[in-house]
């Protein structure tokens, strides 16, 4: 058995505590950070296919689009300036997520969320009132800074607030709000594009103010996490807050563990260099490979450019946006399936099933586009059944992603890192995600222009590679307490050579804290 052979023992560590209305409220508000991220992902593709927007800011793209359909359709949107508009946000997010990790640690998670919300508001306003391309780009950069802060602090906040037993579901709640953000943006684009006078794009871009205000105000009313309070020396306040959050009086075991964990992680002087130690090799590998592979599924080609793509294969602007709404709804619905199944069927099953599903769809879409557009990109008349087949397979592909690599791309890294490297490793995951989101956003339209339908085969190839990677290297983490995660590496045929017996490779080492009470099987 190459991987996943570890069976969870009964070493469950159960802290008392329930899913109180208070914790539910704080988590729902905090998860709004995902909403803003999603809104941005969903809005750019729709706006960049609105003729009035293109005519004003990207006239050369607009002219190409107006030329008749006998010209090469693969290249009509190929403009570095247009892709810079989409992708500048992700580069800014990458930089700010590194800065945010320090703010989050030293000043608390709330402050990072607040920064995130304020930067978002500023970016949305500049975009909504933009008169020149540079204003659009500056606005997108501010939004990106906001995302960096929010994505660094929100998942951390959720994990620390959530009662242990509900951590998985609440984690995917973050992804759920990303998908809802994408869908809302796509629906709004659909209606705003119809506004007479062609200024609807201002509402689409400026609309980001609404989710931004929610997270800004939310972060003002949210309490900070007990972990963060302890980290900053406010022990009594943290204990009172923990009682309130968990809805029980006896929180001493969890509280003591938090204090011990905080001491342990403070004794690590250089979390970044610590990550390079041999025993963290599996963690570092996953911190890099999981977000890398998540982006190499090609999902953001659909998320950013679905309307552009649908336009390319012969839909009108209106039908393009409608198609994007359809894929957006599939994305939300399939994420709910993941919330339901992730702790029943396991991560590996979802990864492998989702991968197979995506692979088949990519092959079908490539074949369809290749058959009609050939290599010169001149389709001639496109029949209705053709468009329906393409949209159907794109939807099945999106569903495959939305119950596998979408949520698991955030969930799995967050549950495998030992405490002492958790924050640094999480920053790496966010950064790698942003770098590859940026690269794909930046070069997709050029790649479509040159690789034509073969582009879908490139992503299909990566889906094969990532599925093999998961099958061989990723152990199952379902039902295993975070504090016990070291076992999955020690019992793994390959990773066991890095994480040796006696080195727990996760959380505190046994014997260092009598409060751990962890039972290893
Ligand atoms: C990814 C995004 C993607 C989104 C789609 C997220 O998990 O990080 O890049 O656009 O899922 O739902």
TrEMBL record:
GO MF annotation list: monosaccharide transmembrane transporter activity; symporter activity
Major location category of this protein: membrane
Lineage: superkingdom: Eukaryota
Keyword Membrane: yes
Family (UniProt): Belongs to the major facilitator superfamily. Sugar transporter (TC 2.A.1.1) family.
PROSITE patterns: MFS (PS50850), SUGAR_TRANSPORT_1 (PS00216), SUGAR_TRANSPORT_2 (PS00217)
CDD domains named in the record: MFS_STP
Native source organism of the sequence: Brassica oleracea var. oleracea
Annotated GO CC locations: plasma membrane
Entries under PANTHER family matching the protein: GENOME ASSEMBLY, CHROMOSOME: A06 (PTHR23500:SF600), SOLUTE CARRIER FAMILY 2, FACILITATED GLUCOSE TRANSPORTER (PTHR23500)
One matching Pfam family: Sugar_tr
Keywords: Membrane, Sugar transport, Symport, Transmembrane, Transmembrane helix, Transport
Transmembrane intervals: 22-43, 82-104, 111-130, 136-158, 170-193, 199-222, 284-308, 320-342, 349-373, 385-412, 424-447, 453-474
Subcellular location: Membrane
Major facilitator superfamily (MFS) profile domain residues: 26-478
Membrane topology recorded in Swiss-Prot or TrEMBL: Multi-pass membrane protein
Protein name according to UniProt: Major facilitator superfamily (MFS) profile domain-containing protein
């Amino acid at each position: 058995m190459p991987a996943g052979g570890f069976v969870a023992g009964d070493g469950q560590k159960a802290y008392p505590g329930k899913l109180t209305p208070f914790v539910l409220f704080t988590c729902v508000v905090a998860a709004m950070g995902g909403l803003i991220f999603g809104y941005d992902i969903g809005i750019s593709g729709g706006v960049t296919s609105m003729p009035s927007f293109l005519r004003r800011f990207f006239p050369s793209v607009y002219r190409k689009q107006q030329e008749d359909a006998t010209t090469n359709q693969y290249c009509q949107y190929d403009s570095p300036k247009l892709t810079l508009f989409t992708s500048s946000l992700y580069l800014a997010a990458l930089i700010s997520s590194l800065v945010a990790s320090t703010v989050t640690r030293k000043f608390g998670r709330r402050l990072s969320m607040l920064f995130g919300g304020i930067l978002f508001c500023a970016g949305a306003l500049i975009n909504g009132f933009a008169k020149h391309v540079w204003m659009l780009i500056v606005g997108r950069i501010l939004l990106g800074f906001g995302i960096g802060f929010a994505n660094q602090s929100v998942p951390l906040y959720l994990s620390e607030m959530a009662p242990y037993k509900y951590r998985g579901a609440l984690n995917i709640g973050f992804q759920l709000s990303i998908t809802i953000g994408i869908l809302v943006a796509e629906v709004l684009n659909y209606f705003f594009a119809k506004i007479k006078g062609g200024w609807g794009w201002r509402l689409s871009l400026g609309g980001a103010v609404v989710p931004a205000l929610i997270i800004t105000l939310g972060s003002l009313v949210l309490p900070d996490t007990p972990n963060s309070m302890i980290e900053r020396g406010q022990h009594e306040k943290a204990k009172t807050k923990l009682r309130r959050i968990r809805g029980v009086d006896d929180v001493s075991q969890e509280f003591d563990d938090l204090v011990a964990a905080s001491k342990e992680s403070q004794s690590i002087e250089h979390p970044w260099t610590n990550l390079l130690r041999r025993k963290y090799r599996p963690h570092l590998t996953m911190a890099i490979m999981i977000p890398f592979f998540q982006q190499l599924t090609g999902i953001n080609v659909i998320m950013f450019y679905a309307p552009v793509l649908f336009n390319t294969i012969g839909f009108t602007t209106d039908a393009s946006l409608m198609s994007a709404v359809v894929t957006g709804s599939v994305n939300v619905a399939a994420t709910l399936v993941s919330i339901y199944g992730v702790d029943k069927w396991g991560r590996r099953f979802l990864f492998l099933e989702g991968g197979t599903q995506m692979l088949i769809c990519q092959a079908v879409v490539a074949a369809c586009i290749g058959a009609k557009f050939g290599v010169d990109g001149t389709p001639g008349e496109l029949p209705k059944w053709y468009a329906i087949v393409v949209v159907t397979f794109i939807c099945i592909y999106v569903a495959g992603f939305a119950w596998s690599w979408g949520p698991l791309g955030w969930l799995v890294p967050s549950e495998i890192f030992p405490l002492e490297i958790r924050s640094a490793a999480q920053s790496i995951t966010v950064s790698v995600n942003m770098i590859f989101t940026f690269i794909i956003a930046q070069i997709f339209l050029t790649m479509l222009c040159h690789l034509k339908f073969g582009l879908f085969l490139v992503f299909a190839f990566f889906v094969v590679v990532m599925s093999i990677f998961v099958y061989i290297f990723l152990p199952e983490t379902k039902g295993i307490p975070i504090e016990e995660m070291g076992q999955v590496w020690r019992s793994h045929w390959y990773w066991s050579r890095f994480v040796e017996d006696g080195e727990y490779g996760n959380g505190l080492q046994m014997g260092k804290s009598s409060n751990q009470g962890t039972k290893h099987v």
